């Protein structure tokens, strides 16, 4: 199942360019800058309105689907619901891409706009150490200036063995933004949900096992959950729109946790 998904051999120029820019600009300094800039939650927005605003966002890094991100979220949550998942997992599926609303306060220079999305979307990787060769489109790794710095271009880089992914700097995007946003707003979602949200784009971790040397006991514990979630994220993608009755139910479930 899924052999037709994540096919990066026949991608369009928008997808390719997004990854090229991410690999070029997502350095340790950039990630530190973005974490500081986009962790200031000074404006309020209605949670349901923020979901609707994803209707306007089409992910330039996604080779699998051209529907809006809101449609994708409903598809993911519906699939998890059909599989009998607990409420918290269904809600996690419904909101896992909500962080992409950062485009509302973004700009071209940061890669956080509708035009330039390399600071919002795409597979993530840990900065401050060597970018693994297993990453998609690895021919762009050489464009990252950190890979010419002896402090950052080794297997461990600035990190220690089994330090834990929570203590690593992951290339910035909607995962980290939403993780920090939910923590700031004291979400009722469990720790497992926050872990999934924070690392669901880190395919090098949950698909390639490229960061085994950095994993803590927590990472080992939650890795199966992350893989389980990935099924609902990836294999729910299709051109079918979820019916309104299911959307209403999912929204009601959503409001219990957010």
- Give the helix level as a range of percent: 40-55%
Radius of gyration: 17 Å
- What is the count of distinct domains? 1
- Give the integer mean of the pLDDT values: 90
**Looking at the structure, what is the overall shape?**
globular
Would you count the extended β strands for me? 2
For the largest beta sheet, what order do the strands appear in spatially?
1-2
The main pleated sheet reads as:
2 strands, antiparallel
**Which class do the helix and strand fractions yield?**
mainly alpha
* SSE succession: HHHHHEEHHHHH
Low-confidence stretches: none
What oligomerization state is this entry in?
single chain
What's the helix count? 10
Q: What percentage of amino acids are in beta strands?
A: under 5%
Query: Terminal Cα separation, in Å?
Result: 33 Å
Describe the structure.
The protein is mainly α and 258 residues long. The protein has one domain (13-257). Helices cover 42% and strands 2% of the residues. The chain has ten helices and two strands; from the N terminus they run H-H-H-H-H-E-E-H-H-H-H-H. It has helices spanning 13-25, 28-37, 47-53, 69-82, 87-95, 174-184, 191-199, 203-206, 217-234, 244-257, and strands spanning 126-127, 169-170. The protein has a two-stranded antiparallel sheet with strand order 1-2. Helix 4 runs antiparallel to helix 5, helix 5 crosses helix 10 (244-257) and helix 7 (191-199) crosses helix 9 (217-234). The longest helix has 18 residues, at 217-234. The radius of gyration is 17 Å and the shape is globular. The two termini are 33 Å apart. The relative contact order is 0.18. The mean pLDDT is 90.
